[in-house]
Task: inverse folding
């Protein structure tokens, strides 16, 4: 995809647009050819407004000055035409992820893209937002725009696509019409073998509460109260899923539990010990491990080797270090064992984390957190952006930890993941726990609860 | 799938950018960088009507580096020895100011305050070194060096604390602290200043360092500014730098904070505490440089010295060219030490190059190095292109029968 958008050059082969062979050697060339790309990681300037982001690089001018009003008007017009509901004057860092994605789409439309490439567009969206995105995509399709939709979510692929091409390790495996294909048939093509999308889990023995959260209030970076009196508990041998639309206080709640953010009031206790506001180190020592939402931003140091990344939790203790000096040999041999155990491919202890694929990076983060032998494992979107094989692996590890009597708090936007793994499902909406469900809850009931019980209403 | 579709995430921090720069070319990139700088400086000489080759030859002679070749004999050898002593005297503080910048870089900080930290160290060293005349020599030297280190560390830590508590950018604060150091120093030693010499009321200069506080000279004539033992202290600092950075948990934290402060925070490290510690250690290196210069060969400070000293700024070029590594810093410090010594007025033949202008050549090369390293795309592009050529050569090799070495 990066080749199509001119970020990398192909070593062989050719690209044809409308039947004409073309050289796409830069993103600006791609734009000229009418190719627009929406990356999985958004390319937006957080402090600029929606309009400013959209016109960036193709600014409407009046004389030498930027014509803000004209830009804003065109953005509004495009937004209305495709039902995007974007406020042109809002600042990017203040709008939801779903909205940011729509801004990315608008960016390409503003440049008259006729071919739209979407890389994992639903990875960060809720079911509701995904449906809205699909409406937009259908409108674009009606308008004659060609869309390449890259995703690992098979149900979505089947819903939105006309034809499905399966890639594996850089090779095209097959292209099939989506009509007549099933999730199982596609999954088989993707991993080259049969996969169980349903996770088998035995009824675990639930023990003492590992985590107790009482009446917790937490503020976000802007000083707004985003967790409003949350109480919950996770027992040993139990997976509690926290389901909710992105941006309803999950991040701040997780950060407060992991010691990254001091709560305004309320209590976080690990095995009965109050750790609220004590910071990451004390919380870790109390037995909390945390797989962060964004592995590249917070989970890993991409310029560190795998051995160094795997030591991030335990570098201050023997045998990894003695009297403030690192034992490099120990660090590497431990890394080697973990890499093997967690089936991290393409990585030796000396490999830089940034050189691994997303799935293998996530395995490294998961390996490190589980290896720290926690009492409570907080997994925040642990399978975001992973392929089926890696998802299966991570799910398996989480359930293995559950069987070993750990408490697991799973924060996820994925219905299927939540229902497959959880023993109990808590729904968070606008900073409050608004419902508790058993794992066999219907998607509809869950969806309604996640959107505040009103249904059909996005979070944006 | 998704993972292969992501373009490589843009390196977020300066440290990460530099890491990419280093990975891309190993030792080739800095050599290419230096060569390019020398080449452009040569063009400047050519344009201004000088012979670059003859000039570089004269500079090379002035560095004394030919002393290492066994075929340099007789009077040549004596001259080379004394030139090399001067080169190494100037290399000593450059190593340390280079470390002061390099260490900060590894933590994602840009320490422009090496010069101020150097000055503060020098001031304290001259004050301690010119007082306590009756102290035993070894103790006196240790006290003066220790005080210089602490002064530099304190000075730099101010910028670290400001960054950690208020978020004030260290580039701004260290530059401002530089000027504070300069003018405090000028005030201290100018006429009527509290530390001005009592020997001559009309000289804006400090008291002399007493004999017992001077560093022993181990090579050359102590009267004619032979090489003092400070070079060993600087090299020891390099070893300590390497150990801290690569083998200690502190260095591990420093590098983690430098590459990805957010991930460091998520692992329970205190990013702010690291900023203060790192800056303090940087200041310690730079302060040590000032102390060694005062106790090793300057023995006094004039207000003029304080206003013209550039060693802290050369440290930036040294660190950048040395890729912020221990060995690279030593090599780059030697290069700039040799340049500064080779272009000094006493060495150049006026018929080849106007000696009073020669020092500017060093500044040109220093500036070019910083420019080229900052615009790393230039050199990285060159490396990538040459690699592309190699790769093509290799592919063609079986047919042509000629293999790349």
Result:
């Amino acid at each position: 995809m990066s080749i199509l958008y001119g970020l990398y050059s192909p070593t062989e082969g050719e690209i044809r647009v409308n039947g004409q062979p073309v050289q796409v050697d830069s993103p600006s060339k791609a734009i000229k050819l009418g190719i627009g790309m929406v990356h999985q990681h958004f390319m937006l300037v957080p402090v600029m407004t929606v309009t400013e982001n959209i016109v960036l690089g193709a600014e409407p001018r009046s004389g030498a000055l930027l014509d803000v009003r004209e830009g804003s008007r065109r953005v509004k017009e495009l937004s209305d035409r495709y039902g995007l509901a974007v406020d042109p004057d809002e600042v990017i860092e203040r709008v939801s992820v779903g909205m940011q994605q729509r801004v990315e789409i608008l960016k390409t439309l503003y440049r008259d893209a006729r071919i739209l490439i979407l890389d994992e567009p639903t990875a960060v969206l809720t079911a509701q937002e995904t449906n809205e995105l699909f409406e937009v995509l259908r409108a674009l399709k009606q308008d004659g725009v060609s869309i390449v939709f890259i995703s690992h979510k098979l149900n979505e692929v089947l819903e939105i696509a006309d034809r499905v091409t399966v890639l594996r390790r850089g090779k095209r495996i097959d292209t099939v019409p989506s009509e007549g294909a099933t999730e199982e048939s596609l999954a088989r093509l993707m991993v080259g073998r049969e996969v169980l999308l349903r996770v088998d889990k035995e009824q675990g023995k639930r023990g003492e509460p590992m985590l107790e959260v009482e009446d917790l209030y937490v503020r976000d970076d802007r000083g707004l109260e985003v967790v409003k009196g949350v109480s919950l508990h996770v027992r040993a041998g139990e997976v509690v899923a926290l389901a909710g639309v992105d941006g309803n206080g999950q991040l701040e709640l997780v950060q407060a539990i992991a010691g990254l953010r001091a709560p305004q009031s309320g209590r976080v206790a690990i095995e009965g010990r109050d750790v609220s506001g004590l910071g990451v180190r004390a919380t870790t020592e109390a037995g909390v491990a945390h797989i962060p939402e964004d592995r590249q931003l917070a989970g890993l140091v991409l310029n560190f080797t795998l051995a160094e990344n795997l030591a991030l939790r335990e570098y201050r203790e023997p045998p990894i270090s003695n009297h403030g000096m690192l034992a490099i040999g120990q660090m590497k041999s431990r890394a080697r064992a973990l890499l093997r155990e967690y089936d991290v491919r393409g990585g030796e202890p000396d490999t830089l984390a940034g050189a691994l694929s997303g799935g293998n990076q996530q395995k490294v983060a998961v390996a490190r957190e589980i290896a720290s032998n926690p009492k409570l494992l907080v997994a925040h979107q642990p399978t975001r952006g992973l392929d089926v094989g890696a998802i299966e692996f991570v799910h398996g590890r989480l359930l293995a930890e559950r069987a070993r009597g750990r408490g697991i708090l799973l924060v996820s936007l994925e219905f299927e993941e939540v229902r497959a793994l959880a023993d109990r499902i808590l729904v968070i909406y606008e900073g409050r726990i608004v419902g508790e469900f058993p794992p066999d809850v219907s998607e509809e009931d869950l969806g309604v609860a996640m959107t505040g019980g009103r249904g059909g209403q996005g979070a944006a | 799938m998704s993972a292969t579709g992501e373009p490589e995430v843009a390196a977020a921090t300066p440290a990460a950018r530099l890491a990419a720069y280093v990975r891309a070319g190993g030792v080739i990139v800095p050599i290419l960088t230096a060569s390019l700088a020398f080449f452009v400086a040569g063009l400047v000489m050519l344009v201004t009507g000088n012979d670059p080759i003859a000039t570089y030859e004269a500079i090379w002679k002035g560095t004394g580096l030919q002393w290492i070749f066994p075929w340099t004999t007789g009077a040549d050898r004596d001259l080379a020895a004394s030139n090399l002593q001067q080169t190494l005297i100037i290399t000593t503080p450059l190593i340390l100011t280079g470390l002061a910048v390099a260490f900060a870089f590894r933590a994602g900080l840009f320490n422009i305050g090496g010069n101020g930290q150097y000055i503060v160290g020098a001031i304290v060293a001259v004050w301690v070194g010119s007082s306590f005349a009756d102290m035993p020599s070894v103790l006196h030297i240790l006290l003066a060096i220790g005080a210089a280190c602490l002064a530099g560390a304190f000075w730099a830590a101010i910028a670290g604390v400001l960054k950690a508590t208020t978020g004030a950018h260290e580039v701004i604060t260290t530059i401002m602290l530089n000027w504070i150091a300069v003018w405090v120093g000028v005030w201290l030693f100018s006429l009527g200043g509290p530390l001005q010499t009592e020997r001559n009321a009309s000289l804006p200069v400090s008291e002399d360092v007493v004999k017992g506080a001077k560093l022993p000279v181990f090579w050359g004539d102590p009267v004619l500014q032979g090489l003092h033992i400070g070079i060993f202290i600087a090299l020891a600092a390099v070893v300590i730098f390497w150990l801290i950075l690569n083998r200690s948990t502190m260095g591990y934290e420093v590098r983690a904070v430098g590459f990805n402060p957010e991930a460091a925070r998520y692992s329970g490290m205190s990013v702010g505490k690291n900023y203060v510690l790192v800056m303090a250690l940087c200041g310690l290196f730079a302060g040590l440089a000032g102390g060694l210069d005062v106790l090793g060969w300057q023995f006094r400070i004039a207000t003029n010295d304080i206003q013209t000293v550039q060693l802290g700024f050369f440290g930036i070029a040294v660190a950048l060219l040395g890729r912020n590594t221990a060995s690279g810093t030593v090599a780059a410090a030697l290069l700039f030490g040799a340049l500064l010594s080779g272009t000094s007025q006493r060495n150049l033949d006026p018929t080849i190059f106007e000696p009073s202008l020669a020092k500017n050549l060093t500044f040109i090369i220093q500036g070019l190095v910083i420019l080229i390293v900052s615009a790393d795309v230039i050199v990285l592009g060159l490396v990538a292109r040459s690699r592309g050529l190699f790769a093509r050569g290799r592919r063609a090799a079986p047919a042509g029968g000629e293999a790349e070495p």
Confidence is low (pLDDT under 50) at residues 1-11, 390-405 of chain B. Residues 41 and 52 of chain B are 8 Å apart (CA to CA). The interface with chain A takes residues 1-9, 15-16, 19, 23, 243, 247-250, 252, 255-256, 259-260, 262-268 of chain B (CB under 8 Å).
